Amino acid sequence: MPPMPETPPQQFASDNYSGICPQALDAIVRASAAGSAPAYGDDPWTRLAEDAIRTLFDTDAAVFFVFNGTAANALALATLCPPYCSIIATDIAHADTSERGAPEFFTGGSKLMTPPCPDGKLTSAAIKLCCRKAQSPQASGPAVVTITQPTENGLLYTPEEIRALADTCHEHGLSLHMDGARLANAIAALGCPPAAITWQAGVDALSFGGTKNGMAVGDAVVFFNRKLSRGFAERAKQGGQIASKMRFITAPWLSMIQSGAWLENARHGNACARLFATELAGVSGLELAWPVQSNGVFLLLPEQSMNTLRAKGWRFYTMFGGVARFLFGWDAKPEAVKALAADIRASMQA
């Protein structure tokens, strides 16, 4: 009987594979040790976490907390989009490809308009095209645009690009929502204040990811335009997204922001992605599908190489017609990153 292959030291199929970072876990333990507390967000941790997010973005935003990113996106979009209107997104947007129709479900009838975007980034021209296509009184005219930062293929919108999109949105009476499941990685990569790529660039509402950045559960929804948040809390309750013991979601947010771990975790994930790409540089026949700009690396791997890696126990997703995706979280170990790269190099020589 042939020997079993060695178990890979760590997996990089998703940053959701990561554990809970110490700052988040310690915050949960301390909140529990404090004993009983008012339920459904009427507790000091939640109020302080809301204030911490407002301070982080340097604006008086309306802040809410839900269990996960799909809920954050779907409920925010439902709040911004009437059921008889539509939502503009790219053709690879998470809201379209990976949320089981949750935006359409929670809006109660809106549709997604997904113009082709070859590099995964929405453009003003694409938004204008969607608006022209929906000029008929019988069409579902767009009400909101959603962009992902970083994009689903790991690219970044610059503040200038976001401002251009926001200007186009507002000229056409549309709101701009940002899916920021990995926003911390974008901020770390761009080296800019959080405000610069959100409300100062014209973003109206944000889904701010915590789960992928080291928390156990819980993403934030931030409405920079408070007037647009009307009805969100009610939708969240109806959708089963108001935690009864909210402090165990919000205490980690408070700790992560106050300690700076939210940004350090993102910097580490980005650095490991760059390390991985460097380890693979110059391998004959191996190509990057897109430049490495955040914590994701997308490889054009031959099928034989992918089969070899899977046989050795490595897990990864194939996306966009067969591109292999590797994501690096807060706890990515450089030696494990190098081990994966070494196995990829070997698979390309087989």
Characterization of the model:
The chain is α/β, with parallel strands linked by helices. Helices cover about 40% and strands about 15% of the residues. It contains 13 helices and eleven strands. The protein has helices at about 20-35, 45-55, 70-80, 95, 100-105, 125-135, 160-170, 185-190, 230-240, 245-260, 260-280, 305-310, 335-350; strands at about 60-65, 85-90, 110-115, 140-150, 175-180, 205-210, 220-225, 285-290, 295-300, 315-320, 325. The strands form two sheets. The chain has a seven-stranded mixed sheet, sandwiched between helices. Strands 8-9-11-10 form a four-stranded antiparallel sheet, with helices on one face. A hairpin with a 3-residue loop joins strand 10 and strand 11 (about 325). Helix 1 (about 20-35) packs across helix 10 and helix 12 packs across helix 13. The protein is globular. It starts with about 20 loop residues before the first helix and ends with a helix.
